[in-house]
Amino acid sequence: MSTNQERRAEARQRLREQMEAQARREKQLKIAAAAVVVVVLLGIVGFVVWNKAEEARAEEYAANWITCEYPEDTAAPEKIDPAEYEDQGPEVVAEVERFNEQVDEVGESKRDGEALTGDQPRRGTAEITITTNSGEIPLRLDREGAPCNVASFVSLSEQGFFNDTECHRLTVAEEGAALSVLQCGDPTGTGLSGPGYTVVDEPPTDLAVADDGSGMSVYPRGTVAMAKSQAPNSAGSQFFLVYEDSMLPPEYTVMGTISESGLEVLDKITDAGVKSNDPSNADYQRPKRAVEIEKVTVGAQEGLPEE
Question: Under which main EC class is this enzyme filed (predicted)?
Fold first, then answer.
């Protein structure tokens, strides 16, 4: 039989064991709580890091790519009744009749290009060669200033949209004329048609201002730019090649430059002159020697962002 002293010793031992067990449980709870805190903190830090990385990726993507919209162009030129202009004289009536003939031409020879979809590169260059019956005109297009227009031009070139077409307009006048360009890109040859969709304006911001106080900008010799109507965002497939410094409102999208060898070919074309400089003549601003685009090919494309 145990003595009172032994029973007290056993009681103290059980108490110590209970206290140690309690201490272990409390320690485990503290460790678990600390672990939870660490996991939560790691989760918060991880989310912040992930969110920052996503923001950085989004910023990088936005710096390299742009969403271009190419709305369908459903507008079509409509004929005008010559009788409505009889009181303005036979010359005006003749102009209306020629316009109506051009409307018929558009209906007979219009082409539709396939508009691009998806995002397009904001940077990178494209080497383009326009092969004409007068020689080759190499271009270098730069997406940085006009990504949507350059993307469309490259796409149309790859589709063969410009092949076997004629440049319909050449502005040749006295020395110092405000506009010195060869205009191409309309398969109907009328200047009234495009690819069936339109392209947003991407106006230049770095052109020199004309010295005459007109507010015009100088489109320098060797510039490739998109033609458009007076309406905003009305460009399509028509483009013009500047062979002498020209004065225009700064609203025509600049796509790139013409090579020196291309300018020599362009000079040869312009030296031949135009059929007429009389606005009332049916051949007004028509190149005297027809300028036929045999094909437009896309060469090297460099500096494109990685997909």
Answer: isomerase
